[in-house]
Design goal:
Strand content: 15-25%
Oligomer: single chain
Strand order of the largest sheet: 2-10-9-8-5-3-4
Largest sheet: 7 strands, mixed
Bound molecules: 4'-deoxy-4'-aminopyridoxal-5'-phosphate
CATH superfamily of the largest domain: Type I PLP-dependent aspartate aminotransferase-like (Major domain)
Structural class: alpha/beta
CATH class of the largest domain: Alpha Beta
Number of strands: 14
CATH architecture of the largest domain: 3-Layer(aba) Sandwich
Length: 360
């Protein structure tokens, strides 16, 4: 039976990428060493890292005055690195609280600067993205932080805020590479790798060069953007396997037609599931406002809560794996990152229809 992994991250990788890892790992092309054994200062790894950086820059159209950094510690390390690099302890930073991950980001930032919630969807149970005219921004904020896709709550910005002269900082961990982005609208973008980029252990940061030396930086050197930029992200031993896998994924994406092609496919995949939810006569419900529904994390509930466990059990029997919602939110969540094929989504939509017909 074919299985499909709907996990939110670590998530499924493109099967071709896994095949390539399998084929290349034991090989001796790199002077008798596998990629896991390469010194990071040697030519072998430097070429891998440079190619990954070049391909990512090409995929996203990263302008020349931005730097791409490969960093440690996942996205959570960036929750601290952003305020440590961009703000001082007394500086204000505005956060838009759209869900579980934005809340974690603002709480962590509060340890290092005057982090403020400039708008929040909490009162509505994080079911929509507050519109920009509801935001109470500080004109003198060091930056404004958004979470472009809330992985646990299933909502996504389908627009780019305009914060004027205040740099816009975005946690794009779960929708990075789901479609094209206008990088020039952001001061800084970061994303953990284990969803749409590759394997855990790596976070990608894209930062506008003028923000690198903005202030005397209190960040530890491994989290210091200037230090990492000056050393080509090799201030210390990088997560070499994660960088290698990211490079394979970027190469795969280029061969799929790039991010415009991915956006088209992702829209089709998520529309198929939202249709299955909306046409179920209330058997399934997605609490998120239609305009803000995520393309990559489709969250829903089964109207009769007691059926949820049965839904998950039967789905697993059908090879539809890891559909349980985030523990902070509950319900069901189907993560549809780039590696999830349309057949997987079709299989889930069919299963949902049959389950609803049987129990509805
Ligand atoms: N931000 C978002 C939007 C996430 O989805 C996650 C992980 N699910 C994180 C941050 C934290 O990532 P990490 O586990 O790499 O620290």
């Amino acid at each position: 039976m074919r299985t499909f992994n709907f996990a939110a991250g670590p998530a499924m990788l493109p099967p071709e990428v896994v095949q390539r890892v399998r084929a290349e790992l034991p090989d001796g092309q790199r002077g008798g060493m596998s990629v896991l054994e390469l010194p990071f200062t040697g030519r072998g790894f430097r070429e891998i890292a440079a190619a990954a950086q070049r391909d990512l820059g090409e995929l996203l159209g990263v302008p020349p005055h931005y730097r791409i950094l490969f960093m440690h510690g996942g996205a959570s390390a960036q929750f601290a690195a952003v305020p440590l690099n961009l703000a001082g302890p007394l500086d204000k930073a505005d956060y838009i609280e759209t869900g579980h991950w934005a809340r974690k980001a603002v709480r962590e930032a509060g340890r290092y600067c005057d982090a403020r919630v400039a708008a929040s969807g909490a009162a509505e149970g994080f079911t929509r993205v507050p519109m920009q005219d509801e935001w109470r921004l500080s004109a003198d904020a060091a930056y404004c932080h958004i979470t472009t896709n809330e992985t646990a709550n299933g909502l996504e910005y389908h627009w780019t805020p305009d914060t004027g002269g205040v740099p816009l900082v975005a946690d794009m961990s779960s929708n990075f590479l789901a479609g094209p982005i206008d990088v020039s609208r952001y001061g800084l973008i970061y994303a953990a790798a284990q969803k749409n980029i590759g394997t855990a252990g790596l976070a990608i940061v894209i930062v506008r060069a003028d923000l690198l030396d903005r202030r005397q930086c209190a960040a530890p050197s491994v989290l210091n953007y200037s230090v990492q930029a000056a050393s080509d992200s090799m201030y210390n031993t990088p997560p070499i396997f994660a960088v290698y896998v990211a490079g394979l994924v970027f190469d795969w994406l280029k061969r799929q037609g790039g991010l415009t092609a991915m956006a088209r496919i992702n829209r089709r995949k998520s529309a198929r599931l939202y249709d299955a939810i909306d046409r179920s006569g209330g058997f399934y419900r997605c609490p998120v406002a239609r305009a803000d529904r995520s393309r990559v994390n489709v969250c829903f509930t089964v109207a009769e809560g007691r059926l949820e466990a049965e839904f998950l059990r039967q789905a697993e029997e059908e090879g539809l794996l890891n559909l349980k919602g985030h523990s902070a939110v509950g319900g069901i969540r189907a993560s549809l990152y780039n590696a999830m094929p349309e057949e997987g989504v079709a299989a889930l939509a069919d299963f949902m229809q049959h389950f609803a017909a049987r129990y509805g």
